[in-house]
Specification:
homotetramer, DNA-binding
Chain lengths: ~130, ~130, ~130, ~130
DNA sequence: GTGGTCTAGACCACC
DNA sequence: GTGGTCTAGACCACA
């Protein structure tokens, strides 16, 4: 069972964002979008820590926070799994709430830079297409 | 001459973002957008510090960083002014570069949440109109 | 592991040159000359501060500036290390650039004092030999 | 008598060196090298201040220091002139003493950068020739 | 353990 | 008046 999932997270230690936070946010989003389903098992702390050359305590902290948030559940002697009864319905409205802060940040900057709306939308559209 | 400029910055000490960084970013944007013109004088360290009930060193740190960045220039014994030769031309392309990181963040989240593009664009458009 | 590195910097609090600047310049030169190699760890802020009876913030300021300059890199929760991709290659040409300002200063003074070139070169040669 | 001397000083407000110090040092060197002769009159404070767009008080301070140093003498109602009995003989040894600090700075940097002596001398020689 | 941020208050140099 | 430097000590976030 060690082949679990090698390509789950994208951790960047130099992004300014704390590592534990990156883990939390990414797993939360994956659960919200259904990429991780209720009951599904997660890689062990040691596994992730090794994979990204990160301190195990950092991953452990992330898992603990996710458990406190009700996103994950701890199964003694086994590991972590996605919580069963989950507030994170795949409902679109809910998911849109997640990106509100990012939109706020963006809009603030746009206004202070005096960038026309069309240009902003054009740039975002372009970037979204590229990701496809 | 006391009416100099009362309405310049919007500092929020509880935003998680360091105060000196808020100052840096906002002034940088104001220079980039042309709200602050080359050669224009800035409020003194003590002025801003008093206005926002912040320690002068905090503002001073921001000014120093902005000088190191080439955004501001120091005039000894007089104060700070917007740097003359400025990379931050007001042209649109340059300004769009400033919001690239914010767009990246947004797009990453959108993809991990599996939100359809139209919904994202709709939400942003809505938010932009509101700000008007 | 306490024998880490005791003999690194030469700080003189009365030289007129700000302490943080002395630290910056010396570390920059050590990196440029290869005395400090890419990835190598640096003494902690508190370690240096204690060693030279200086306020930790002063050293911290130096480290921050060196990070902004791309000379050092921060490893969160661990400390500072020499940046990996470093403009400060050890090639001779690059290092010669570092002493250009000092040469400029010298030459200006020499010209204003009307000192013959041979005399200048002789004096410098003498001083260089002495240092050996 | 207003045509005195338009091209005397080279003041750079952004060099980091205080303006009054630049004035002091340059005039001192000119006296030492004989470019300014004993009894010779100097431009008025206002003249220099206007020429370089500098605060008159700054020039005044420089003149005062030079007077205290015995380099200049104040003639009431007339202005400043180069002091008559002057320690600054044009003797070569004396003049060489003036550049000792600049040489020290240079040598320190050279040693910390591990630059070979020949390269240093070559670079200086090159720069000296260029100035010719 | 690491570095980062902020404060309050001192002193300095420059203009 | 301006900004710069430093201190002593507090608290926080990260690993």
């Amino acid at each position: 069972m060690e082949i679990e999932s090698d390509l789950l997270l994208a951790i960047n230690p130099n992004s300014g964002v704390p590592i534990y936070r990156q883990v939390c946010e990414q797993i939360t989003r994956m659960v919200a979008s259904g990429q991780l389903k209720a009951g599904e098992a997660l890689p062990s702390v040691r596994q992730i820590a090794t994979q990204f050359a990160v301190n195990p305590m950092t991953i452990s902290k992330a898992y603990s926070l996710l458990e406190a948030d009700g996103v994950l559940a701890r199964v003694r002697g086994v590991g972590m799994k996605v919580a069963q009864r989950n507030d994170l319905e795949q409902n679109l409205e809910e998911r849109l709430l997640f990106i509100t802060p990012a939109i706020e940040t963006l809009v603030t900057q746009v206004e202070q830079l005096n960038i026309p709306q069309d240009e902003v939308l054009k740039a975002i559209k372009l970037r979204l297409e590229k990701g496809k």
